[in-house]
Design goal:
alpha/beta; Rossmann fold
Length: about 80
């Protein structure tokens, strides 16, 4: 399916339209894994109204670099 290293990420930046496994399926797979449930998932999409329920934040495409950096800093600077 997908693999993560033993060191958890501070954030998952998720595009909904990916080849192989779409973003909605990936989101559900992450939420089923106890060790990943608390990792914030930020969705970036041109259709933000279609983001999975429970996403930490949603960024609209095209996104400005400043907005992305602010969001990453918000969740990763802890």
């Amino acid at each position: 399916m997908f693999a993560f290293s033993t060191a958890l990420s501070c954030l998952i930046l998720l595009d909904l339209l990916m080849p192989g496994m779409n973003g909605w399926d990936f989101f559900e797979a992450v939420k089923r894994r106890p060790e990943l449930r608390e990792v914030p998932i930020v969705v970036h999409s041109s259709a933000p109204d279609r983001a999975p329920q429970g996403a930490t934040a949603v960024l609209r495409k095209p996104m400005k670099l400043e907005r992305l950096l602010t969001t990453v800093q918000q969740y990763c600077a802890r």
